[in-house]
Amino acid sequence: MGIRTWCDAWNVRRARAVVLVVAAIGLLVRMLIAANTPGPADVRIFQGFAKAVSIYGPVRIYEQPLPGLPVYNHPPLAGWMLLGLNELDELGIPFGTLIRSPASIADFFCTLIVFEIVRRRRSMRTAVGCGIGVALSPLLIATSGYHGNTDAVAVAFALAAAYLLTDRRSPLAAGVAAALSISVKFVPVVVIPALFVVALRAGRPVFVRFTAGFTALVALVWGPALVTVPENLNENVLEYTGGSYRLWGLVRFADVLGLPESFIAFIRGEGHFLFVLICVAVGVWLAWVRPAQLPGAVAVTMGLLLLLSTASGLQYLTWAAAAMFVIGFWEGVAYSCLLGWTAILGYQGRSAVRWSETVLQLGTAGWFVLAICLVSGVRRILAAPPDGPPSSPAEPASVTAPRTSHPFGSAVN
Q1: Widest Cα–Cα separation across the chain
Q2: DSSP tag of 88
Q3: What DSSP designation does 51 have?
């Protein structure tokens, strides 16, 4: 029996166990890196933020000048996380390890989520490969285990929201996950409209439960800051457009081509919001025409946001890493390996925000690879059956209700 036939013959339980073991190995690798390396400057910056949060609190932090630190541009939930990590740091657990733990743990769960998403839409072999790809992605190992930050956490919650809404039929939990994604890092806001579109198409009960979960969590997490320091929160978080570096994508191309500074200023300013609207529009369109393919629509939207991003940062490459494995195995491998090489070399340089010529060239190649992967993803979504993904052969549809009662077609748990 060939390896392909052997893998496809696995039942869900065996395949899930294999992915779980590899996910645990990936988590161990990330934590070993976190425990034995100093990490980039962001580790020290986050430690400074954590000390400031312990003094001013997770809400008042937004109105503080914070000398020696960059602008505090993290959503409210990140402040509560930093407050907890600072308490653990004072108990003797190294902060450098702590700050990289959330992203590493998020990758563990994201591995399982990607496996569950893909197995309902592709072969078991592909699902196992995509799950393992997330666990062992050199890009995610570098950005989560070495860099840290909260990008991987936000992406994991965004994919979880799509999975819970379409595949698990849990709109209340999906709404909570969606709110958590933008409460950790604001970038997944581009996928929220697509989630609402699918919830709306599923019927009033689903829409009401999804909205209730989303609204309740947003009110709980964002409410105190919105009431207390609305202007500071808006300036620091909602309108944050990234640093001034010209290392990635459209800004780098404009710089290399010698385009006018006024044009670069436009795409980083007002044009930045135009790109965000494009990402939202694409996500909503895909969700509307193929609601059962919502996880793919979320993956494409996050990847498109990175493609059109006018900000530069090695950790931002995380936005599309797990997403490309949702699109397909080879797309995930191509993106993770090329951009993983980019990140590893970037972190070995003088600074993660000063890329060498080699890293710049790899980043340029990675941009085009991402564009190709996104085209592949859109085509695959549109080629899918309109009524939803096929049932998993290992888990037949429930006999207690007709399959047409499922608002997303024939997908089953």
Answers
A1: 65
A2: H
A3: H
Closest to 247 in 3D by CA, of 340, 354, 342? 354
Shortest CA distance to 229 belongs to which of 53, 50, 62, 71? Answer: 62
Considering only CA atoms, which of 106, 113, 240, 247 is closest in space to residue 186?
A: 240
Calculate the alpha carbon distances from 408 to 121, 169, 249, 291, 411 in Å: 13, 9, 36, 7, 7
CA–CA distance, 81 with 329 (Å, rounded to integer): 33
Residue 351: strand pairing partners: 354
Query: 302-330: per-residue pLDDT in tens?
Result: 999 999 999 888 999 999 999 999 999 99
Q: What is the DSSP string of 86-147?
A: HHHHHTT--HHHHTTHHHHHHHHHHHHHHHHHHHTTS-HHHHHHHHHHHHT-HHHIIIIIII
Q: Where are the beta strands (DSSP E) in 260-399?
A: none
Any idea what the Cα angle at residue 182 is, between residues 244 and 318, rounded to 5°? 55
pLDDT tens-digit series, residues 34-71? 999 999 999 999 999 999 999 999 999 999 999 999 99
Letter string b/e over residues 212-233, b meaning 16 or more CB atoms within 10 A of that residue's CB: ebbeebbeebbeebeeebeebb
Report d(CA 103, CA 101) in Å as an integer.
6
